[in-house]
Design goal:
7-stranded mixed sheet, binds NADP nicotinamide-adenine-dinucleotide phosphate, single chain, 480 residues, 15 helices
């Protein structure tokens, strides 16, 4: 791995501000080569309990600090991340597979949450409420929820952590994080920089380990965890929600998507194809906001399909470390299998494979385009999470909205049109938490990211992202 600061390649867990190894370790592999790149501390419930206890002990002191002091730590952390951008990106690509340019982009995106929430830390305002009776002063103040448990996935091993940790720490919470076993190195490198930024001990704990269920349970069962924040599949989100019920934890769930991408006759087919490439193929199709179902109006269908196929054919596939590569390996064999199954199902139901779809070596898959996909294909019913784009034809705006909304999930949607009224009408009719109009890239630290329906609860980013880590306390004071 090509990094200059070898200390960032940390393999020990980070508990109570100490680097911890208990002897047990699990391998982390490079999906491009299947080679083991590191052996990381394999923690269990006792380490999780120690991390929770450390966070509980550290949190009140941190909450009592001035917002400007917390902000200063976050700002230093941001600066350290940007200074180490190339090393962090190299670690990320080695364990996750995405092209280095995308990995650098993810580090900058992750860092931007520390920058944004350093500023938000100073703006946690309460309210004074006109009283209901004479001689009273009513106020509502905002206080941190306390200790936060965080569980994050492998597809954005830096940014999915930053989106939770930055707002939580900014408002005075402490965090116990369990990153995906597939990508623990990015989490540990981030913790290394937290340490260097001067984050007091115990406020961030990174408990690595193979036992996702056991470590998750240790978080959900603990009465000392006030809130759980999770990014991952809807299936595991439901399970965690159930497990949080006995202790009535606050919950944020960023779950699966199945984003519709609508192209209307009046759109520019070239611009729409560019947007579709970004929305569909970023991270090899492995993002929760990836366009999953492309609905194209009959009048523009062929021009759009041609423009998209040309762009797909131009994509270079290979290890993320190679210059010019746009598509790296998928995360594992199961991911390839799912994408392949969706492709085969669409073709078996009458779709036409226009280009791509070949698999191998290892977990590489050539991006595929299928046209005339029937509306009931797996490709439209389920999140593919891989580089397969399927086109479904539609005639009327009403049909497009109906098909787009015919899903259990509702995370992101995209639409391309040059009709301003239609853009407003359709954006408001779509049952999703986010809509991209004439753009395929919507994620930013400054705006609320999140889903409706079974895509989850709560928002990350924007001032709304800080709300997720705050409680409101109402105080009624007699002043007579
Ligand atoms: P996943 O299987 O739900 O895993 C997510 C995280 O949960 C991982 O850290 C995983 O650990 C852990 N986990 C698995 N089983 C668990 C259990 N029983 N108890 C506690 N934790 C458990 O999801 P994935 O397939 O890795 O990630 C892809 C999914 O995440 C997609 O559906 C995608 O749409 C969604 N996602 C959503 C957003 C969003 O913001 N809405 C962002 C990114 C991804 P291991 O990896 O170690 O098994």
């Amino acid at each position: 791995m090509n990094i200059t600061d070898r200390d960032l390649l940390e393999t020990r867990a980070y508990i109570a501000g100490e680097w911890h190894r208990n002897g047990a370790a699990f391998p982390v592999t490079d999906p491009a080569t299947a080679e083991v790149i590191a052996n990381v501390a394999d923690c269990g419930p006792s380490e999780m309990a120690a991390a929770i206890a450390a966070a509980k002990a550290a949190q009140p002191g941190w909450a009592a600090r001035l917002p400007a002091e917390r902000a200063a730590v976050l700002r230093r952390w941001h600066d350290l991340m940007m200074a180490a951008q190339d090393d962090l990106a190299a670690i990320l690509t080695a364990e996750q597979g995405k092209p280095l340019t995308e990995a650098r982009g993810e580090i900058a995106y992750g860092a931007s949450f520390f920058d944004w929430y350093a500023e938000e830390a100073r703006r946690i305002y309460g309210e004074t409420i006109p009283p209901h009776a004479p001689g009273l002063r009513l106020t509502a103040i905002r206080q941190p929820v306390g200790v936060v448990g965080a569980i994050t996935p492998w597809n954005f091993p830096n940014a999915m952590i930053a989106r939770k940790v930055a707002p939580a720490l900014a408002v005075g919470c402490a965090v116990v994080l369990r990153p995906s076993e597939l990508t623990p190195l990015s989490a540990l490198a981030l913790a290394k920089l937290a340490d260097r930024a001067g984050l007091p001990k115990g406020l961030l704990n990174v408990v690595t380990g193979l036992d996702a269920d056991g470590l998750g349970r240790a978080l959900t069962d603990s009465p000392d965890i006030a809130k759980l924040t999770f990014t991952g599949s809807t299936r595991i989100g439901r399970l965690l929600m159930e497990r949080c019920a006995p202790t009535v934890k606050r919950l944020s769930l960023e779950l699966g998507g199945n984003a519709p991408f609508l192209v209307f006759n009046d759109a520019d087919p070239e611009a729409a194809a560019n947007g579709a490439m970004t929305a569909k193929f970023r991270n090899g199709g492995q993002t929760c906001v990836c366009a999953n179902r492309l609905y194209v109006q009959s009048g523009i269908h062929d021009a759009f399909a041609k423009a998209l196929a040309a762009r797909i054919d131009a994509l270079r596939i290979g290890p993320g470390t190679e210059e010019g590569v746009a598509i790296g390996p998928l995360i594992n064999a199961a991911a390839v299998e799912k994408a392949r199954a969706h492709l085969e199902d669409a073709v078996a139901r009458g779709g036409t494979l226009v280009t791509g779809g070949e698999t191998g070596p290892g977990t590489f898959m050539r991006p595929a385009l299928i046209r005339d996909v029937p509306a009931d294909a797996l490709l439209t019913r389920e999140e593919t999470f891989g580089p397969v784009a399927g086109l479904v034809r539609f005639d009327s705006e009403a049909d497009a909205i109906r098909m787009a909304n015919d899903a259990e999930t509702g995370l992101a949607a995209y639409l391309y049109t040059r009709d301003l009224a239609r853009a407003a009408r359709v954006s408001e009719a779509l049952q999703t938490g986010m809509v991209g109009v004439n753009t395929g890239l919507i994620s930013t630290a400054v705006a609320p990211f999140g889903g409706i329906k079974q895509s989850g609860l709560g928002r990350e980013g924007g001032h709304q992202g800080a709300e997720e880590y705050l409680e409101t306390k109402y105080i009624c004071t007699s002043i007579s």
